[in-house]
Structure formats: C-alpha cells, structure tokens
Write a structure and sequence with these properties.
6 strands; 26% helix; 30% strand; alpha+beta; six-stranded mixed sheet; Nuclear Transport Factor 2, Chain: A; 163 residues
Amino acid sequence: MQPCFVRWLIGALVIGTLGCSSLSTPRSLPSVQPGLGEVATAWARSFATRDPAEITKYFSDDAIAWFPRGAKPTVGSAAIRTAWTSYFKSNPAHPVSIDSVVTPASGELGIVYAKYLYKEVTDPTADGGRYVAVWRPVGSRWRLVLLSAHKHDDVSAGMVVPP
C-alpha cells in the first residue's frame, strides 16, 4: 500500500491522480541518459550563471513552479523564465544544493529535494529555504515538471553546498 500512496501523491502534484493499478502494469519507458542525479546537478550548477534561459532549459514546456511568497503557481517554462529574469534584477545570487535524488524503479518520475539561498553562500547574512523538484522523462531527457520552493527560517549560508 505504501508505494501506491507515494505514487498517488506524486501524480496528484504533477498531473493528477495516477491509478494504483498501473503500478503492476509494465511500461516501456524511453532510455533516459544521463541519470537524474547528473541532470539535477547540472541544473543546480546553472544557478551560478544567473542566466534564466540556462536555468529554465531543464524545465518542461508545461512545468509548474510555486515560488516562495507566491500567491499562486507559475505555469509554463516561458513564465518561469520571466520570473527568474525578474528575480535576478534585484538579487545577486541564488545558490542551490542537491540533498537527495530519488528515482523509483518504475523510472516514471524522479524527485530531488534540497535547499537554496537568496544570497551567495559566502554571505553570512544569507537565508533561504527548501525545495522539492519533480522530474519526469520527456523523450530521452529528464525534465523538471514541478518545482515547489518555500522559505524556511532555519536555512542559512552554512547549510547550502552547491554541487
């Protein structure tokens, strides 16, 4: 029952509820290369460029991002790129860590979670939060389909180690 619940929860967040009966149905999935850990690390490193196009190239066209302090989610990679463009006009940095990468055996989705900062990691006044990123194979590549980031007062510069 637990794997069914986890799959249901992920599906509800990304694309709606997935039936638990599909857990036992074998599917032919595309071969996704490189692995999610490598792609997520490249995405996290892209924040050092402060280039919204570089950051959002990892998002699917229909991705959803719920940014901290956002009243509602931002939908679509173009709108997400616009949000990052606006962010970097008044913020010098946004380091992102990778704390965990989880890829279920089915290979249908992957989850990355970790921390982020609003300033450089060398700034002792930097604060930030935590995020969950849900990825799925699109064609032969992993694409970020849901990003949910939230401010956490306990996240500080010493806690975020960019890859």
